[in-house]
Description:
Blueprint: H1 3-17, H2 24-31, H3 35-38, H4 45-68, H5 73-90, H6 92-98, H7 107-124, H8 134-153, H9 164-180
GO molecular function, one term: DNA binding
Protein name: TetR family transcriptional regulator
DNA-binding region: 23-42
Amino acid sequence: MNRDAIVATAAELADGHGLRQVSLSAVARAVGVRVPSLYSHLQGTTDLMAGLTALALTELADRGDRALAGRSGRDALVALADVHRNYAREHPGRFEAAGALDVPVTDVLQAAGARVAEQTAAVLRGYPVSEEEQVHAVRLVASVLRGFVELEAGGAFGHRRPSSGESWTRVIDALDGTLRSWSSIGPT
C-alpha cells in the first residue's frame, strides 16, 4: 500500500459510487485496513481529494496529448472535446474531481492542470485568437465543454429529442464558429 494505490482506490470508488461517497473510511474498507493506517500515506481527506484531482487531470491530459497530436483547427477542437466527453463517460467520478476547486493546489496538481489548459491553448493556435484574448477563449472552451458534459452526465438532456449527441455536434459547430470569428469580437 502506498499513496498512489490509495488514490487509485479512491478513483475507482468515485467512478463506481460518486465522488461524494469517497471518504477515508470508504477507502480504508476498500483496501482492507483501518483508517489510521492511511495516515502513513496521506495527511487526511483534503490530501486524498487533491491526489484524486491530480490523478484525474493527469489522465485527462495524457488522453489529450494523444488525441491532439498532429491536429489543428476544428479537428483539434473536436478531438479535445471528445476527450473530455469520453473521459467523463468512462470515469464520471474522476471527471467530477478534475473540476474540483476546493482542494489544496500541490505541485503535481498545478502541473496537471497546466497541461490541460495548454492543450486548450494549443487548439486555439488554429484560430484567430490573439495572445491578449487567449485567456478569455480558454475559459469559453472550458466552460462549454465542462458545462455540457456535466449536464449530460446528470441526465439533463435525456428527456427530449433530439439526442444529446446531435446537440453535442451543434455545440462544437457553434464553438468552432465563435473561435473562427474571434478576431471580430472585441472588447465593448
